[in-house]
Amino acid sequence: MTPFTSRSRDSVAALGEEKLIAAIRRWLGLASPPAPYGIGDDCAVLPRSRARQLLTVDPIVFGRHFDARVSPRAAGEKLLKRNLSDIAAMGGRPTAAVISLLLDARVSRHWLEQFYRGLAAAARRYAVPIVGGDVGQAEHVVAATLTLLGETTAGRALTRTGARRGDWICVTGQLGGSLRSGHHHRFVPRLREGSWLAKQRDVRAMMDLSDGLAKDLPALTPTGTTAALDPNAVPRRRGSDLRAALGDGEDYELLFAFSGRADIKAFRQRWRKAFPQTRLSCLGRFVALNARPADAIHLEDYRGYEHLRR
Amino acid sequence: MTPFTSRSRDSVAALGEEKLIAAIRRWLGLASPPAPYGIGDDCAVLPRSRARQLLTVDPIVFGRHFDARVSPRAAGEKLLKRNLSDIAAMGGRPTAAVISLLLDARVSRHWLEQFYRGLAAAARRYAVPIVGGDVGQAEHVVAATLTLLGETTAGRALTRTGARRGDWICVTGQLGGSLRSGHHHRFVPRLREGSWLAKQRDVRAMMDLSDGLAKDLPALTPTGTTAALDPNAVPRRRGSDLRAALGDGEDYELLFAFSGRADIKAFRQRWRKAFPQTRLSCLGRFVALNARPADAIHLEDYRGYEHLRR
Asked: Which of B45, B92, B207 is nearest residue A52 as measured by Cβ atoms?
């Protein structure tokens, strides 16, 4: 469904700002608490928290992160879930979100309503209050930026730094074919898994996969090492070859390093018990630069998704 | 200065994402702390705080909030200051910011560098670390959305709710002519004043002026009352008539209600001592609906700035 309408009385511009904001609050419903906690004052005033705070921001843009084949509800859900995946990657839980929209005047009210209802449904499902926002006009564009605040759940935030030589490289779920399969908007952010992993002391570093394993893994790789990945261990979505699994991007799975000195077999058993529905794959280890086996994957040969290129 | 370049090798697209992000971190310099507090991980990990948290978001869009007459440095400063004004309006202080950019591929590197250097300068001046961000591509658009986290400084957040019949209506600074005079990007957000006002128990409600007094004041006005404003008391910027002062918008001044039972004269003396450089005007009071004097301003006759209209 295209966001644009050719009938000007169905457009957001015909509503005017005051009515539009009233409509947005109605569409968000219980997903937005009363002011000053929620929408309606200069800032949202949030409850106090003793935990360490997490902050992340990600947009979705029409023509880039979704198109007319994606329903507006699914686009609204995707916007929140992309950001939830970043909170999951640190083992956190979400606490509040604010959203800023840039809309061409010809965007249809109906499209926008469905977008907000999708966002609200996801916000209720993941218990994230939408506490503030802004709507502005910009020609030729339909874009929404969501900023998500969260907090740690395990006494620590699991960062990208901390892996060592010898550590196992593990990944949740399946990789590749995200756009083709609709996974890019249907995925479930790995919040429960991320929080559980942050509580396992032998998990040393973690990130989420957004640009594809080949492009993302270097951020987790300790200096002086390289990843020795078994090509047969990479979990591929049905219809995806190795190149797709390593390079397609938008997997929104968790990639983490598990201590090479700990008992990986016992860890995998605990995982299966905690998450019987979520596949866990150990792809290989970080090894010294000159110690990569000949049959391991040459990640350099697989380019991830590169933004801002034409 | 226009953000666009016609020479494709000077464009952000020619850089590619990795080099662009490295350049942004260089341009931000000390305004962005090392990861995971700053840019470089899935989320920013923030220091703990015992104070109540404040959260606000506002964008700037080329062609709306700035144009080629505004330097990229000033645009970057304005982006942060607009949001600081919202934190000031609750009596808070800023703690961290994240920024999301949407850029046409033809935006020039030089323009973007100056924009970030302006943002970084303002971030250092107001001691707000830039802890995360995102850069995405979108055709025909140059837009930046900044989300600002803050905390209360006075044990309370001063909201828009709380004014009563009989309360004084006061405003800082001068109103009107913001675009013409350049005030819309040169203004200094009223952080010190806002924090001081939040500590005065007789200040009952506060907001910042962004859409013009005529449009903004109703949000502060208690039910069953109306504002009785003396037209001669409205502080006008040089060259602005009453209509401009009430309707132009982008004043970024503080509007607040002061208890009608408290000593306004003593309060104004304390103000002059604390802020000898900042004008304070008391424009009138909230009165019963049928008690507005004939010579008071009819706010309904002055429309503020309306977004999303063509």
From this structure: B45
**Interchain CB distance below 8 Å, B139 and A139:** no
- A147 and B150 within 8 Å at the Cβ level: the answer is no
Q: Which residues of A touch B15 (CB under 8 A)?
A: 308
B254-258: strand order across its sheet: B203-208, B254-258, B168-172, B280-288, B225-229
Indicate the residue among B125, B152, B179 that finishes a domain: B152
Average predicted confidence (pLDDT) for chain A: 94
Closest-CA distance of chain A to residue B142, Å: 9
Query: Where in the sequence is the domain holding B64, given as residue range(s)?
Result: 8-152
**Residue B310 pLDDT > 70, yes or no?**
no
Q: Are residues A32 and A103 in the same domain?
A: yes
ipTM above 0.90, yes or no: yes
Question: Are B109 and B208 part of one and the same domain?
Answer: no
Q: Are residues B145 and B177 in the same domain?
A: no
Q: Could A45 and B15 be called an inter-chain contact, meaning their C-beta atoms sit closer than 8 Å?
A: no
Beta bridge partners of A133: A99
Token readout for A78 is 């995707």
B176 in the same domain as B260? yes
A2 part of a folded domain: no
**In the prediction, which pLDDT does B64 show?**
87
Cα A112 versus chain centre, distance: 22
Nearest CA among B277, B226, B246, B129 for reference residue B176:
B246
Contact A51 B51 (CB under 8 A): no
